[in-house]
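Researcher: Here's a chain I'd like modeled. Treat it as a single chain, no partners, no ligands.
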Amino acid sequence: MQTQPDRSQFALQPSPRANNGLRFLLAAADLQAQAFKAMMRCQIETHSFLKHRCDQNVRLADDLVAGNEFNDAFDVLSTFFQNATSDYAIEAGRVASIGSKLASETGRRVQKGAETTVEDLAASTVG
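Model: Modeled as a single isolated chain. C-alpha cells:
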C-alpha cells in the first residue's frame, strides 16, 4: 500500500495576487453588467418616449383632418408643437436622471470594491 506524503499548509492557498486578480475580473464583470443594465434602461425609456411621440403624430393627422377651417388647423399645429417641445424637455430630464443614477450606483459599487480590497489586503498582512 502506497501512502501519499502530507501536503504543506501552503500548497492549497492561492497567492494574494491571484485573489486580487480574481477580484479585479469579478469587479470588471460587475461593471459591465451594470453598464448593460443601464443601456437597456435607456433603450426602454427611449422606445417608450418614441411610441408616445408616434401616437401624438397619428393624433395630429386625425385632428388636422377633422378640422374644417384654417384657424382650427393653426390651433391644432400650435398645440402639437407646444406639447412636443414640452415632451422633449421632460424626456431630456429623464435621460439625465438615468445617467445620474447610473453614475451614483457605479461609484458606490467601486467604493465598496475598493474597501473590500483594502480590508482583504490588511487581513492578509496581519494574518
